[in-house]
Amino acid sequence: MTKYIDQGKNDTRSGYGAGMTELGRTNPNVVALCADLVGSLKIQPFIDENPDRFFQVGIAEANMMGLAAGLTIGGKIPFASTFANFATGRVYDQIRQSIAYSGKNVKICASHAGVTLGEDGATHQILEDIGLMKMLPGMVVINPCDYNQTKAATLAIADYEGPVYLRFGRPKVANFTPVDQKFEIGKAVMLSEGTDVTIVATGHLVWESLIAAEALESQGISAEVINIHTIKPLDKEAILKSVKKTGCIVSAEEHNHLGGLGESISRVLAKNHPTPQEFVATNDTFGESGTPEQLMEKYGLNNKAIVNAVLKVLERK
Amino acid sequence: MPELNKLQDIVTQTRRDILRMVHKVNSGHPGGSLGCTEFFVALYHELMELKEGFDMDGEGEDLFFLSNGHISPVYYSVLARRGYFPVEELNTFRLINSRLQGHPTTHEGLPGIRIASGSLGQGMSVALGAALAKKLNNDDHLIYSLHGDGELQEGQNWEAIMYAAGNKVDNIISTIDLNGKQIDGATDDVLPMGDLKAKFEAFGWDVLEIKEGNNLEAILAGMKDAKSRTGKGKPVCVLLHTMMGNGVDFMMHTHAWHGKAPNDEQLENALSQNAETLGDY
């Protein structure tokens, strides 16, 4: 299988911050909003260099989404950022009416998604945000896998006209995708070709899938690993092409199995090419306090869980 | 004063439009629409600086945002008669495949509308965002917004009110339609909001009242006063005292016509109180 090298652990939110710094220098229409979490979102360099294009809204996320919608009227490209929980569920109707239904060019940029937020616990660990956002007509949903890809995605969505939900996380994780990658919204990335099983992963679970594929290779199982950074619109062709070859699939995501990537894939398969599928995702539950590693282990979201899911799905072929 | 007579003619015709629109589909919100008719007419035919045609960004012109979207009948009538779209299109209000949805939306591309509203409490944030964009673009035109009084029960308003003063957003005039009524009854019975003037002032706004909110002369004088207060470091709030259902005697002094259409007989009665001035659509 194709080998990937960790260029040095880094957090995806810092990839967002780096992308914002670059956008601050290259796109005068980009403006940033934040709800009292500048440090967590890593956007201080953008603010230092573009103080007039930054809006600190305080702890008032509903107002932030409305301000962002209004700023588009006048040609601005607002990047509204906070934790994923407060960027989605807390302000769902504001996003629905003022941004999605109104077709506004707002980028909702959400850090600390999923259980890997860690010790703060379930009040802050949203596992439903992909589902909430993908149900909104016209909303693009992106969950990049590492620092480099998050930076590339941040740059790419500025050039896309329309509402986008960009989801990333808190912990430092392997940074293994190319530094100069071109990010294509809606285009899956083939990471490693295989013949026995397809593993489709998003976000932090992509690296775990590569580790799982290596472990499977040592057992004589050839896994194809695909990075689905864009959950909506979903790259159906890439998924169907792969399962027609392998005959079974495992989806992996740091999200509830209800409403996540796995469900979107199931729909594609049911309509086009019914295929056995196993889900690596949380099982309709809230998270809890703990270290990211402990939580990934307890909630079945690591490479071991992916290997087990592969072994299970292979029996159903 | 001929100009005033001209505006009054538009007001009367707008009332007829509102009544006929809601009657045709037996739904919609005539009460609040009638209460704000003079305000809308003054705004679009006298007070706002508007470009010809419509583009979403609205640079180089004043912009208006309606937060209490349920009074769409008055909004649609005034936009149509100001030339944003054909007056005949008022015939399609609330019908399938119409651009005139029950609540205003950008989704069907109706000229004049810049944001969807209807789910209450969101318009002030949007209007403030547009005001910030105007400042970034060095565009010295103003943002106007309208909000229901009952709508102020939504918490997002107070986030926006706090933000506007804290950040000296002084190119906005937010008007509150103080008719004292909401669906379930008087605002003082449903959820008393206390002294709104004191509340806005405590948040740091410059507040003025228009006591006769259904009197064109009073509206013009009050709004010109409001305009003169912009650009001075404070957002401006206008408390517009209106009568729900104004211009139709049996729709006044009650909240019953908030979201109810007149029947044939009631329509005839209401129209007889408002003679055709500019031609029905």
Describe the structure.
The complex is a heterodimer of chains A (317) and B (281). Chain A is an alpha/beta fold and 317 residues long. Chain A has 13 helices and 14 strands. In chain A, strand 10 (197-201), helix 9 and strand 11 (223-227) form a beta-alpha-beta unit. In chain A, helix 4 (61-72) packs parallel to helix 6. Chain A is globular, with a radius of gyration of 19 Å. Chain B has 281 residues and is α/β, with parallel strands linked by helices. Chain B has a single domain, classed as Thiamin diphosphate (ThDP)-binding fold, Pyr/PP domains (Rossmann fold). Chain B is 39% helix and 11% strand. In chain B, helix 1 packs antiparallel against helix 10 and helix 3 packs across helix 9. Chain B is globular and about 50 Å long.
Helix content of chain A: 25-40%
Instruction: Identify the CATH class of the largest domain in chain A.
Output: Alpha Beta
How far is the N terminus from the C terminus of chain B?
A: 27 Å
Poorly predicted runs of chain B: none
**Can you identify the CATH superfamily of the largest domain in chain A?**
Thiamin diphosphate (ThDP)-binding fold, Pyr/PP domains
Q: Please, how many domains of chain B?
A: 1
Class computed from helices, strands and strand pairing of chain A: alpha/beta
In total, the number of strands of chain A is 14
CATH class of chain B: Alpha Beta
* Number of alpha- plus pi-helical segments of chain B: 10
Order of helices and strands of chain A: EHEHHEHEHHEHEHEEEEHEEHEHEHH
Helix content of chain B: 25-40%
The interface involving the most residues is between: A-B, 32 and 39 residues
The name of the CATH topology of chain B is Rossmann fold
